[in-house]
């Protein structure tokens, strides 16, 4: 007899289809004992019979039965074949009409051609339904308890974490960099394109689209915030990839209806519209002038000044990085206020040191539990205020994330796009390119005047 095998497993967290493979092996052994010829295998891996989703393998099986392609059906157990009464009735109708024999490895024969057999199938389906609902109730209760305790719960591995909630350093670094870039006005589309170009994929092996990146950056899980049944319930007990204030800033920024995410005006060269002409004071633009290997900057309105682009950019970056290394850089905002970022970072470090000291005093018995709680609450409140201010500064001015970066300055700078580098340069300094006059060949640094903004 020509027969088909149907296999299904509800959840495959390892993604290796081992459960389906074991079911298939047992069904093939049963077919061999029965003398049936297996001509097709239909499977639904990692798909619950109660999920409400279409089961492609099950639909293909019913189609093959209705077309008369098979006379026998093998499955591991009836609950692998159906749990929904709706699916059972469809199976009964087709199996009875086409006289399809059904055999199971762990459930015996299923004779749907008789009223007694159909009654048994319906009873088994009702029992399976009750078991599934009871399991769901237990799981929901367990999830409620886990959420209240701030425990990590995840059916699938999210990008940036292992399935157990441990940080994956390389992926976490990409998320942090993307958060910094987006808060500094880099487009989600640009982040997506960079990740695709780098060969980065999600945990299911698919490339990141712009909506994927947007959802990821707005996901409270990355700030160790527990969300249960669509509502934030408190802090999680796992290590965050982003601090809470950065997360709040991302959500506010990406939810702002005034944004126009479909329009991309990112500059491709750091000096375009940033460098100024030394004769007329107008902005300079980047031009290839017929030679793609030697791009240059030229005065936008008049060709007062023309200069090769690469040496100018290298010199400006060198000066700006030296400037960013200073501990006393004021950060100027659009409303004219100046903010001492280094001072804010020093205050934050001081508060963190006091928190560590308080924990040490508690360990030594110098303070009791109530004193520890009061002190910790007060210090964490002050820390949260500074973190919120730093996150808002990073959103308003991309230079904020570079000031006080120390040994990480060069790495953070190199990670910026030309557009963001141009924004940092324009926030911190003015760059004026003077006319060369009658000078010899070679690059003359004195003709590129870089001055801190007043």
Automatic annotation (TrEMBL):
Matching PROSITE patterns: RECOMBINASE_DNA_BIND, RECOMBINASES_3
Domain Recombinase, first and last residues per copy: 156-260
Pfam family, one: Resolvase
InterPro entries in the cross-refs: DNA_bind_recomb_sf, DNA_bind_recombinase_dom, Resolv_N, Resolvase-like_N_sf, SSR_resolvase
Span of domain Resolvase/invertase-type recombinase catalytic: 2-150
GO molecular function: DNA binding; DNA strand exchange activity
Name this polypeptide is given: Site-specific recombinase DNA invertase Pin
Organism, scientific name: Mycolicibacter terrae
